[in-house]
Design a protein that fits this description.
The complex is a heterodimer. Chain A is an alpha+beta fold. Chain A contains 2 helices and 4 strands, in the order βαββαβ. Chain A has one domain: Alpha-Beta Plaits. The longest helix of chain A is centred in the last third of the chain and has 10 residues. Chain B has 3 domains: 161 residues, 3-Layer(bba) Sandwich (FAD/NAD(P)-binding domain); 126 residues, FAD/NAD(P)-binding domain; 98 residues, FAD/NAD-linked reductase, C-terminal dimerisation domain (Enolase-like, domain 1, 2-Layer Sandwich). The radius of gyration of chain B is 23 Å and the shape is globular. Chain B starts with a strand and ends in a 16-residue tail after the last helix. The chains are: A alpha+beta, B alpha/beta. Chains A and B meet through strand 1, helix 1, strand 3 and helix 2 of A and helix 1, helix 6, strand 22, helix 7 and helix 8 of B.
Chain lengths: 76, 451
């Protein structure tokens, strides 16, 4: 079985739709180096996580209860 | 494997498909779904779709890899032949597979005697159902009856109150959400709904359905006659296994699977999501179904991994269950198996209204319920995961280690007094917090060296 390596050398842009997000914090459980739920109730996040965290970013987006995380893959 | 067929185009099926591609499967991927459209975000049906905040198109689930799949929408699988490796489709079409994922989910349970064909009576399972409920709701402003005492019913009742509608919830049980949270917390939810203006008629059955032109009458076992211009029926669900009759698979209460998601008695077949009954070795050897959204996503991926790995090399799927709900502006989160708890302990927060409650069994933490406490849940879910480890395959299931905070002096595991509802934040509290400006991705968060 040949492995696909489609995502090599790609950047990834993370954003969160403020109106959808209800701050359940599942994203932080999935990717604690990208998402942080602060004691002030705010969610902070890294918009350009490094490649080694891309899988975690996608997992956070998949499991977001509000489907509020937008992941854009960009070449270069 | 040349061709993998996924029957069921919901969350579990989609996430399985993604995982096949991520793992490098380059063969044909066929996704057969009973509904017309692509997979969508079902949890929004009882909330944002009903309020109109989101529309049908907003709910489409994204794939995060190129799926390159062949979609067969509006197609009900009719039969499965595991010996010939064939899924039979309508029109006597036979779809051969090398690997198969069963992810057909559940169907709403019917209530015997209900006026199912009355256009004002709705189930709420599919996007189509959701759109139909919304249409009936917007056609008038009359009272609404919600039948059932589970998550969907509670969420619908709550959504209707935020829309300012008169709503009556009718349930056979004496409390709400009892199957998930047990009697005590169920009673607390009953009071929450009552305090937010939901009329509750509990411990009650519907004796007769009396359709009138202007409204639908429900004759209740209390003797009451309830008039409603819209009825939402949500009295549980049953696994969608009709198409598997005669296949030789064990389909009582879902498709019976091994700990790895492999279906018992069929080669190269796995199951995932609400339809699958498998032993989660974290909780012991008895196979269970789990109707939770996060589980469907995680199990879809696990089933795909198991199918490609093969029976001998696949890993058991041992998730720590996590689920959430939102009712009357209150975020409810749970982890583990609170319903197995024998006593509770307050882990964070001074009142029940905001904080994390731990559920204990034989002195060990077995489940968590958090109310408006996502940070507390993050912390305690990690702790629960450490304490409640899965048994290794073929090991006898052993009890977890004693919890550190329960070693001497042992705190009383007495039932905590129920919190007063006054401590529950009002529906506005979340909105207030949400409206605060939030920095989108502070620049200092950026990882060094990444553009």
């Amino acid at each position: 079985m040949r492995l696909r390596n489609r995502r090599a050398n790609r950047g990834l842009q993370v954003s969160v739709n403020n109106r959808r997000c209800h701050r359940y914090g599942i994203c932080q459980a999935e990717a604690e180096e990208i998402f942080w739920l602060g004691s002030d109730g705010r969610l902070r996040y890294d918009t350009r996580p490094p490649p080694e965290l891309h899988d975690q970013a996608r997992m956070a987006a998949r499991l977001c209860p509000m489907q509020a995380i937008v992941i854009e893959e960009r070449i270069g | 494997m040349e061709r993998i067929v996924i029957v069921g185009a919901g969350l579990a099926g989609l996430r399985a498909a993604e995982r096949f591609r991520e793992l490098g499967f380059e063969g044909q991927l066929v996704i057969v779904g009973a509904e017309r459209g692509r997979p969508y975000h079902r949890p929004a049906l009882s909330k944002q779709l009903l309020t109109g905040e989101l529309r049908g198109n907003d709910l489409t689930l994204r794939s995060y890899v190129e799926l390159d799949a062949q979609w067969r929408p509006a197609t009900m699988a009719r039969r499965l032949d595991v010996r010939r490796r064939v899924v039979e489709l309508p029109g006597e079409e036979e779809l051969r597979y090398d690997g198969l994922v069963i992810a057909t989910g559940v169907e709403p349970r019917h209530l015997p005697g209900a006026a199912r064909h009355d256009p004002r009576v709705h189930m709420l399972r599919t996007l189509r159902d959701g759109i139909a409920v919304r249409r009936t709701l917007t056609e008038g402003s009359g009272p609404v009856a919600v039948i059932g005492g589970g998550f969907t019913s509670c969420e619908v009742a709550s959504t209707l109150r935020t829309l300012g509608r008169d709503v009556t919830l009718v349930s056979r049980g004496d409390v709400l959400l009892k199957r998930v949270f047990g009697e005590r917390m169920g009673a607390w939810f009953r009071e929450l709904h009552r305090s937010r203006g939901v009329s509750l008629v509990l411990g009650t059955e519907i004796m007769n359905w009396i359709p009138h032109r202007s409204a639908l009458g429900l004759h209740l076992s209390t003797g009451q006659l309830l008039m409603a211009s819209c009825v939402v029926l949500s009295v549980g669900s049953v696994p969608a296994v009709g198409w598997l009759r005669g296949s030789g698979l064990t389909i009582e209460d879902g498709v019976l699977c091994e700990p790895t998601c492999h279906v018992v008695g069929a080669p190269d077949v796995v199951a995932a999501g609400d339809v699958a009954r498998w032993p989660n070795l974290r909780y012991g050897p008895s196979p269970q179904r789990m109707e939770h959204w996060l589980n469907a996503a995680e199990m879809g991926r696990a089933a795909a991994e198991s199918l490609l790995a093969g029976r001998d090399f696949a890993q058991p799927f041992t998730p720590l269950p996590r689920f959430w709900s939102e009712q009357h502006g209150l975020r409810l989160q749970a982890a583990g198996a609170p319903v197995l708890g024998e006593s509770t302990i307050q882990l964070s927060g001074k009142e029940f209204g905001r904080g994390v409650t731990g559920y204990l069994r034989r002195g060990n933490l077995i489940g968590l319920v958090g109310l408006d406490s996502p940070r507390g849940m993050l912390r305690w879910t990690a702790e629960l995961g450490r304490q409640c480890q899965p048994a290794r395959r073929r090991d006898s299931v052993t009890a977890g280690q004693p919890t550190p905070y329960l070693t001497s002096p042992r705190p009383a595991c007495e039932l905590e007094p129920l919190p007063s509802l006054e401590s529950a934040p009002g529906p506005l509290s979340i909105r207030t917090r949400r409206s605060q400006p939030r920095p989108a991705a502070a620049p200092e968060c950026r990882a060094p060296g990444v553009q």
